[in-house]
Design a protein that fits this description.
Layout: E1 10-11, E2 14-15, H1 30-33, H2 35-38, E3 44-51, E4 56-66, E5 71-77, E6 84-91
Antiparallel strand pairs: 1-2, 3-4, 4-5, 5-6
């Protein structure tokens, strides 16, 4: 018997079942939904950041932002070389 002459939807004389499609259900975390709505004034954080370009710890003050996963990150600028600094602060 030759291979490849059958239709793709037919296997061993019976039609195939359609593939199951699993749609992503969005999470409903109430603690993360209200973060952007409540914050009117930007939160700031001052402390040590590690500068990758200088390869040293620098004291700086930056604003706190929350990423898609809910992790708080402080973002600042290095006072010596001007590189962007990031520090992960943890989840809310």
């Amino acid at each position: 018997m030759q291979r490849g002459f059958r239709s793709r939807n037919v296997r061993c004389g019976r039609p195939r079942r359609p593939r199951r499609v699993f749609h992503k259900i969005p999470r409903r975390d109430d603690q993360y939904d209200n973060l952007g709505k409540e914050a009117v004034m930007a939160e700031t954080w001052s402390g040590e950041f590690y500068c990758v370009k200088c390869k040293e710890k620098r004291e700086a003050e930056g604003e706190v932002k929350v990423n898609e996963k809910g992790t708080r990150m402080a973002k600042a600028v290095c006072p010596v070389c001007g590189t962007n600094l990031n520090r992960i602060l943890g989840k809310v």
